[in-house]
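Thread title: Can someone regenerate the structure for this chain?

I was given the following input by a collaborator and told the matching structure tokens would be attached. They weren't. Posting the sequence so someone can regenerate them.
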Amino acid sequence: MAKRNAQVSVEYVVLTAFLLLVTGIFFGFALFFFNENSATAHAQDAVITFVNEADRAASYGDGSKVFFTVYVPFDVQSLSAGRKTISMVISNAGGSMDVIGYTKANITPAAFNPASGRRSFSAEFIDGNVLVEELA
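Best answer:
Regenerated them for you:
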């Protein structure tokens, strides 16, 4: 009788270990995709903020200047502005992804440091163009 109970206990341990392994793999994939989707959402939010603030500076008229902050996510390869476009390229598991926003006003071409974190910028409307600059 003791041998049969020992066999049942071993089967329960093996079954529990298998279920924990499957659950761990599932949560690992979920965490990976959550982080990737979070970075994409932060990039989209940053580009939308750039676009809105550039349009707001242009709507105030010549000589107006607005200040704003954005969170730039990790894995950003480039961040640039030019013509009527704000562009951010982020790397993900499938290569790289472009996040692009379009403004109503012309933007003076500029490239920014792609370092991640909360960053401060200004948008100034001068002679029909919006000049976006990073603040120190």
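The mean pLDDT is 90.
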